[in-house]
Amino acid sequence: MELSYGRRGPAFSDMVSLQFTLDLPFFARTRQDPQIQAKRHELDRVEAERDAMLRDHTRELEADLAEYDVMTRQLARLRQVHLPLAREKVDYQLASYRPGKGELTAVLAARRELIDARLKEIELEGKRAEAAAKLYYFYGPAAAGEAAPRRRAADENSATHAHGHCARRRSCFHGLGRPGRVLAG
User: Fold this and answer.
1) Would you place residue 146 in the very low, low, confident or very high pLDDT band (cuts 50, 70, 90)?
2) Residue 42: enclosing H or E segment and its boundaries?
3) 77 near 156, Cβ under 8 Å?
4) Which burial class, exposed, middle or buried, applies to 55 when counting CB atoms under 10 A from its CB (0-12, 13-18, 19+)?
5) First vs last Cα of the chain: how many Å apart?
6) In 29, 34, 99, 145, which residue has its Cα 20 to 30 A from 163's Cα atom?
7) Is 79 in contact with 121 (CB distance < 8 Å)?
């Protein structure tokens, strides 16, 4: 809408004009369709970027959860298999050395293997805690709630992995979170 006032010469009277304009959809293809199509392409591009970003984040989260799961399984295997074997080897070497049948170097080698296994346990605990902290920092408490490390007096829940009742779960986080609490993966 447009309103105008015009003062003309002495021979003519003043003039007021009111003008209304509206677009008729006779040639919409040349006026509106390209703009609508451009907006649709922009929307498709933004949706594709969002979907790609979501896939990337999902892939990163799955990789981080898998890394945490691997550390947990390695730690459980170390505690269930390697540490008991190393302790037994030290006990057998000491039992052999005490009556004079074994050598001191064998006892020392067995003790070194036990110490190496304990150092490996500490290293794996650190890596697992690092993975849990990464999950918590980047994905928040919801993702890290499954992988939050707890302080352990004794990891009594780690033996449940050997029984196989967790095989149907995607990830198992026994022995994590609050003591006595089993989290579904």
Assistant:
1) low
2) helix 33-77
3) no
4) exposed
5) 65
6) 145
7) yes
